[in-house]
Fold this protein.
Amino acid sequence: MSRLPQISPVALGPILLISLLVLLVFRYTSTPGPAIVTSWALKNNFTAPEPASVPGEPTPLPEPLSGTFLQRADLDVISADGLFSPEDQVRLAADLERALNYVSRRFGSSSTGRINTYVGVAAGCGLHGIAYTDQRLVQAFTCTDLPRSRVVNIMAHEFVHQLAHDRYGPQHLQADMILLEGVATWGAGEYWLDGQPNFAMFLRPYKQNNQLLPLATSYVGRSINDMNLLYYQWASFVDFLITVYGRETFDALYITGSHAPGSADYVGLYGKGLAELEQEWLNWLDQ
Ligand SMILES: [Zn+2]
């Protein structure tokens, strides 16, 4: 273990991507979860709001990397002092490496370089994450009251943002919000599924209760519950596009957007618009 020097936020340069702060409302376990996710699963346990990435507004600077440093195969893991015991810092680094390996397999491609992975202290215990993919820097914030697994869940999502940047290049930064956050959530897989086998199963109760939102809904200004539900819906929609229409077409679609939800060229790639694809997805959810 060694100490990293304080790095000025200014020195880290401009930020090209912020991913949403995402709060998991459940704790990932390796044992199967309940067969049905009840409607309150996305509504409880939030302790802080999530900042949205708003076009035209400045992105928060990364927190300076200060704390204990551990090196893994593709990761440099830094955790803020006071969060974990020395033993848990080692476990955290191993957990994060396992998460990166898992999401790389699921996403279908690996990181093209080392990833600076910072776990910091969340003010007010508001679990959240952020990815600065142009800098190969991902950050997640937690507190001593939360189990280690919660921040690993968040980081799994942030890792996929980095893998997407590595796969798609800088155009990733302008991706349709549906695809940008959908692919990161889908790629995080079991770290977000709370024991459910897939995102379609996770969403079925919400569909049955008529709680789903239109896919082309921006999270900006929405409640935390809506933002989380949108993430799950977008993950399932990504799953649908890849499963039904193939990865190659999805990859071509991903780089056509301009950030706004629904801005990708669905007609150009699938010969049908988002509304038609959304209806197909809703039917597919029941299969
Ligand atoms: Zn994200």
Q: What stands out?
A: Confidence is low (pLDDT under 50) at residues 1-50. The chain has one domain: 2-285.
